[in-house]
Amino acid sequence: MKPLNINDIAKAAGVGKSTVSRVLQGQNHVSPDARARIESTIRELGYQPNMVASGLRKRRIQTIGLIIPDISNPFFPEITLGVQQVADERGYAVLLANSGWSNDREEDLVALAQRQRLDGMIINPVHISLAALRAFGHSVVVIGTRAAYREFDAVGSNTAESVQLALAHLHALGHIHILALPGPRGQDSTRNREAAIYTAMQARPDKLPQIHYCEFTKSGGYDAVAALLSLTPRPTAVLCGNDLIAIGMLAGLRERGITVPGQISVVGIDDIELASVCCPTLTTVHKPKREMGMTAANMLIDRIEGNIQSPPQMKKMSTHLVIRESTAAVGISSG
Predict the structure, then answer these.
(1) 276 DSSP 8-state letter
(2) pLDDT per residue as tens digits for the range 251-300
(3) How many domains does the chain have?
(4) Which of 90, 121, 125, 334 has a CA that sits 20 to 30 A from residue 232's CA?
């Protein structure tokens, strides 16, 4: 059987070929009645547009890439859902890849995206070079607000604000001896959190938290309990670089019979779904994860389609503190 084409749809719907084309391309200059008839005809006949041929004509394949560092961290699936929602609405497919916090893997994935001629790419970079991102040759949106990538569009949350909120909360509860777990040593994300800690503490350097490095994982937080217990004086609170570290910390403390928040308060950053159901529930700083993904996707597709001609934009989204059960004033027993 001969495959259906745009002429078949136009004839069955009783409209012109150009009208069908406008509907398929998501354009607005079509009457509601004609659009309804065309969409109904497409469903009835089971028509599937030839996206490859369309992409060749437009020099686009209606496909974008999304590279994240850790699919097992619930923070990133929320961003992915936001990207996918916008891509679906605007007629684009999304190819998802996980770099596993590996710079080499990250650069390989960007090179693959270039070979596959993807229209654009959203990436939460580990430590990829500017040269590698430039070599991609198409529009790029970076998740995060690191100055190193300022020549690309970027969407992120306010890291300094997140750290400031968490520290201010602990100080308000009377905590002076604080351990900070900003992430793995040497990573840009970790350095951003460290810088935010030092900035927040400029007015009170005598209360600067002690720093210990660990992976952005539950096991990283769990293993950091040993470092916490070795410190003198023992910290009464822990500021974790993300919620997974905090949840691992909670597990390690519970295993050793140390009560939270009775003996040690714990605060995270991200407000992933697990934060509201772990035991105790986790005080954390909420980041608008899905909104970040949606904003990044809209920004990227606008660049691809020529709707943005301005210099690179950086959109920094606000955060807010969510107080739950894992923090309390110094000396308050958990009962």
Answers:
(1) G
(2) 999 999 999 999 999 999 999 999 999 999 999 999 999 999 999 999 99
(3) 3
(4) 334
Residue type, 258: I
CATH number of the domain encompassing residue 213 = 3.40.50.2300
Residue-wise pLDDT for 144-198, tens only, equals 988 889 999 999 999 899 999 999 999 999 999 999 999 999 888 899 999 999 9
Report the half-sphere exposure of 334 (CA within 13 A, side-chain side). 16
Neighbouring residues of 55: CB distance < 8 A, sequence distance ≥ 6: 61, 62
Q: What are phi and psi of 107, to 5 degrees?
A: -70, -35
In a domain? residue 325:
no
CA distances for 140 relative to 14, 20, 52, 215, 298, angstroms: 41, 31, 22, 27, 12
For residues 146 and 69, the model is more confident at: 69
Going by the DSSP 8-state scheme, the letter that residue 4 receives in this structure is P
Q: Are residues 78 and 166 in the same domain?
A: no
Looking at the structure, do residues 87 and 70 belong to the same domain, yes or no? yes
Q: Please compute the mean of the pLDDT values over residues 41-66 and round it to a whole number.
A: 72
Beta bridge partners of 321: 285
* Residue 54: pLDDT band with limits 50, 70, 90: low
**Chain CA centroid to CA 94, Å:** 15
Residues in the chain: 335
Instruction: Enumerate residues 6+ apart whose C-beta is below 8 A from 303.
Output: 120, 139, 141, 153
Look at the block and give the residue holding tokens 């009645």: 33
Closest to 262 (Cα-Cα) out of 237, 243, 282, 279: 237
| Predicted TM-score (pTM) of this structure | 0.80
**Which tokens in the block code for residue 9?**
């749809």
